[in-house]
Write a structure and sequence with these properties.
Distance between the termini: 30 Å
CATH class of the largest domain: Alpha Beta
Order of helices and strands: EEHEEHEEHEEHEHEHEHEHH
Number of domains: 2
Largest sheet: 9 strands, antiparallel
Radius of gyration: 21 Å
CATH architecture of the largest domain: 3-Layer(aba) Sandwich
Strand content: 25-35%
Length: about 325
């Protein structure tokens, strides 16, 4: 996790002082900032651990929508701990619909941090007939530029998320719910809808410096999967419909996950919508720890009251 590789934070506190938080200086604040967002001050500088990066193999592959069941099966198989490959990034699979073109498709971002084309860990995806692929050996910068070009500019944006265990029937249920709800939003002008699955392997989340995300409590063989509904569209008049249908997709999927025992309380903060509770997924111990840090460094709750937006610790 990126936050687990931050060595130091320079931060402006509520009383106006500037301090540095590291593993040995204000260590409680240093840890709380790894998932606690803007509840403790204004971070003005970070120092991060880095590593050399050469050419990598990465890009996007595209399949027809009817291939979704096979791709979700390949995704679930990839996520099995026995198949973990430290050079393979977690595959991001998206079921997409583009209103302007009237088409649905499935895409996957595959990335391997060695310059090796179609390594065996991705065989489950390589074996499925596809429409096309942009995969090539390139730099991280070139890969990031490709990702940026996929994001439409000048559009409205909404996303809402949940987390489940690596369970194929749960994935199929989300896919069916998504497909069933799409007809109700086909009139949304410029709509680009995505149902996205993104893995969090314990082999990754259990590494690095301590944070407050609570993922260290999961079993070392667990793979959690972030499920995200992400939408771009053009006009404000469609806001209510987009927000409602997006939340319904996630809520109905969560019902299925709970019934199967595959639900998880974690909510990835960067994807969470208003009204969701990412801190609740960190666990009570981590929540109380963050509140204690908040009372120490912001005793009057300035950042709870004056800072607009974001998720609050409710310590005022």
């Amino acid at each position: 996790m990126v936050c687990d590789n931050i060595k130091s934070y320079d931060i402006v506190l509520a009383n106006g002082t500037i301090t540095q938080a590291t593993a040995t200086h204000h260590a409680d604040l240093w840890r709380a900032l790894k998932g606690g967002t803007g509840n403790f001050g204004i971070v003005t500088r970070i120092e991060a651990n880095t590593f050399p990066s050469g050419k990598i193999w990465t890009g996007y592959a595209y399949w027809a929508a009817w291939q979704a069941p096979k791709l979700l099966a390949a995704f679930a198989e990839f996520n099995e701990p026995a198949n973990f490959d430290k050079y393979a990034a977690g595959i991001i699979v998206a079921l997409g619909y583009v209103q302007k073109l009237g088409i649905s498709a499935v895409t996957a971002n595959l990335a391997y941090t060695k310059p090796e084309k179609w390594p065996s860990v991705f065989q489950g995806f390589n074996s499925i007939w596809r429409l096309w692929t942009t995969h090539k050996i390139q730099s991280m910068t070139e890969s990031a530029d490709e990702f940026e070009r996929l994001a439409p500019t000048g559009y409205r944006q909404f996303q809402v998320t949940t987390t489940v265990k690596n369970d194929l029937p749960t994935f199929h249920a989300f896919s069916q719910i998504y497909s069933d709800r799409l007809p109700s939003v086909r009139s949304v002008k410029g709509g680009v809808w995505s149902l996205i699955f993104q893995p969090l392997s314990a082999a990754v989340t259990l590494k690095g410096d301590p944070n407050v995300l609570g993922l260290e409590t999961r079993h070392s063989n667990d793979t959690l999967v972030i499920v995200l509904v992400s939408v771009s569209w053009l006009h404000a008049k469609d806001d209510e419909l987009v927000h409602r249908v997006s939340r319904e997709m996630i809520a109905l999927g969560e019902d299925v996950a709970r019934s199967r025992g595959t639900d998880d309380a974690y909510r990835y903060l960067n994807y969470a919508a208003s009204g969701q509770d990412p801190f609740g997924g960190y666990g009570l111990t981590n929540q109380e720890f963050m509140r204690g840090v908040g009372r120490t460094y912001d005793p009057e709750g300035f950042f709870q009251r004056a800072k607009q937006g974001g998720f609050k610790l409710d310590i005022v």
